[in-house]
Amino acid sequence: MGDTSSKPSPSPRSPSKPSPPPPPPPSPTFRDPWRKISWGDKERDLQYVRNYQPENTDVKHLRILLYGPVGAGKSSFISSVVSTVRGRLSVTAEASATISNTSHSKKYETHRIQKESRGNFYPFVFNDIMGLEEGTGCGVRVEDIKLALKGHVKEGYKFNPASPLSDRDPGYISSPSADDKVHLLVCVCSANASEIKDSVMQKMKEIREAASDLGIPQVAIVTKVDEACDETQKDLKNVYKSKYLKKKITDFSARLGIPLNCIFAVKNYSSETYLDEDVNTLMLNALRLMIDFGDDFINKV
After folding, report:
1. Total-model pTM
2. Coil, strand, or helix at residue 281?
């Protein structure tokens, strides 16, 4: 007879191990900021700005010229600086215009900041110009900005995208004074905008080269950082911790050739109806260094 013993039953399967949880996504912020800001200590910078006087007595005011692509927030930046320095919300006519992709600054206009005492103004001024656009016959012409750097553009001159200012025009200053000339050139761009078009970037580089030939110091302001990044929208103090903004600013520095320590991130006043300490801190940090750079140039004139 055959072996009637039963075959051994198979051993029970061991339960399968659960899959390990996926690794957490990388943090959108650095552990430590790549640039240190003294949050909550704006009074020191504010007093510095309020006490500023050009060392060169031949110059009554430090002239700061803003340029950049259309919609970068140049006029709003000026309004935000005025608000921060004066301690109450202020707005320029251009910044209060309807938001669009067109430039509201048609004329060469000097923006002054009035002190508490009537009739007195701070010894630094801002000039805003039309935004740079793609193609010829659109936006401000590079030739006009080069003339403005040398002080040849008269107050109130209306920019003509079709033709540059000439020495025969009534808006031309033939013998500019030291006050007419630009002492600091500021490039303004938006952190929330798509990459700057090559043709616009080329115009910006031409302007930079012209300023460099004249020895004029240059900085850049990156606006709308709150709109560009969720982390800064939640907390503006994350502005120099945000990995996205660090890459955005680094890429911009490489393309335009402005060193990182000459690029400042800010948030313009837009929807607020009151002043914000963190907004003011970023504004004053940028403004103080802008004044220092411009004053160094004035002392060489």
Report:
1. 0.88
2. helix
